[in-house]
User: What shape does this take?
Amino acid sequence: MKSVTLVGARDAKVAELLKELGVPVNAITADELSAWTGRASAPSAPIIVDTRGDAQLPAALAGFKRRHPGAAVLIISSALEPALMLEAMRAGVTECLTEP
Assistant: This one.
């Protein structure tokens, strides 16, 4: 099964749920996302960015999506805040989910 990369996880719930489903998880920090921007090819695994508790996306995300436009990026948010959703759209985020 394909793995996912989890960026900036606020708690272990998301990783635990994915692992229960049999999905391998690679957890990285928002700072480590910057290093991924320089990769020659886009990662094949989807990237999940946990923005719960933050009013903005990691600074490196827009640069990463410009370099790798085909990469699937999903954000998890506490609420559908208009400013965050607009920032996500501009950064090229594939999907936005709110936690239940």
Observations:
- The beta strands are 4-7, 25-28, 47-50, 73-77, 95-98.
- The CA atoms of residues 26 and 98 lie 21 Å apart.
